[in-house]
């Protein structure tokens, strides 16, 4: 049977509606990215775990693999807070730490793992990696939550609302950045030149 990729993608798209900001620090450099792959990874309420899947193309991927620590932040949809959320999303998701410092543009404090905590986030969990799965173009990380705070009483920002607020120029830049990322994923999955 031929795979119906349209059907598959209708099943899979939008499964995780909350964009998260992942930060880490490695070798004295702090960095981070946006992700739509975050999840909870424990059924034990008193021992929470978080999971996230990062693409090997991204600098944060290699940093997290090395440091073994990360902070995962939710963004706020609150009227007074959503502009700061959009600033975080556009800063971390719009360019690479390979091209310069992104974290220095955001308000932060140092977390217990050394990861930068984004003070304008809605909330965060900080994690130490306890396992990871290499899936060719990605690594899926699972971490024990070792610290957590909630800064805001507002709703958490969903990706649909965030996309509707993103400026057209930013989306254009994001789409352009996505091209080499997708090619890198195909190279990892199928071998270079076999996509
Ligand atoms: C809404 C959104 C969701 C994203 N989801 C992921 C993801 O799940 N995994 C990933 O590796 N990159 C994801 N990205 C892409 C990275 O955030 C982006 O490539 C970033 O610039 C990488 O920065 P870095 O090279 O400094 O790590 C997402 C970007 C956006 C805007």
The counted number of beta strands is: 9
Give me the CATH superfamily.
Answer: Electron Transport, Fmn-binding Protein, Chain A
* The CATH class: Mainly Beta
How does the overall form come out from the CA principal axes?
globular
Name the average pLDDT: 97
**Ends: how far apart?**
21 Å
Helix proportion range: 25-40%
Placed side by side, the strands forming the largest sheet appear as 2-1-5-8-9-4-3
Quote the beta fraction: 25-35%
Order of helices and strands: HEEEEHEHEEEEHH
List all distinct small molecules, including ions and cofactors, that are bound in this structure: flavin mononucleotide
Characterize the largest beta sheet: strand count, sense, and whether it forms a barrel: 7 strands, antiparallel
Based on CA atoms alone, the radius of gyration comes out at 17 Å
Name of the CATH architecture: Roll
Q: Structural class of the secondary structure composition? A: alpha+beta
**Topology-level CATH name:** Pnp Oxidase, Chain A
Task: Describe the overall structure.
Its EC number is 1.-.-.-. One of its GO terms (molecular function) is oxidoreductase activity. The mean pLDDT is 97. The chain has a single domain, classed as Pnp Oxidase, Chain A. It contains 5 helices and 9 strands, in the order αββββαβαββββαα. The strands form 2 sheets. It has a 7-stranded antiparallel sheet with strand order 2-1-5-8-9-4-3. Strands 6-7 form a two-stranded antiparallel ribbon. The two termini are 21 Å apart. Strand 1 (20-26) and strand 2 (29-35) form a beta hairpin. With 195 residues, it is of the alpha+beta class. Flavin mononucleotide binds at residues 19, 31, 33-37, 53-55, 58-60, 93, 95-98, 159, 181.
